[in-house]
# Entry
Amino acid sequence: MQQAQVAQYIFFKVYKLSAKQQFIECAKLGKVLARKCKNCGELHLATVYFCQKCGHKEFENVELEGKGTVVTFTIITVPPAGFEKYTPYAWVVLELDSSDLRISGFMANIAKPSDLPIGSKAKIVDFDERGIILEKQ
# Structure
């Protein structure tokens, strides 16, 4: 285990964070908390309970860099209640550079498709009431 992983492990255990809270804390640091199957090594987002490749139920946590490529998005101009102050924004699907995993998140100030061409580079910068916060690189 690397020193940063040891520190994270101790932090998670001492403060008894739930899996959801661990995921959120990693996102706040610009990372994605993934789960690596102990049987076949397949990576999954932290929300799975069994390996989608082999069916195994034992995992180890792995931190991935929260950087990737925009593969699709939708622009929100008529938001749900409570999100009016953020419009316009995009809900983005980001394929991570370090794996084939994809995550989705909020990106501010995207008003038209030309503001965020498919293939643009982006990264995770935070997590709040909107979810994972992404920023163009």
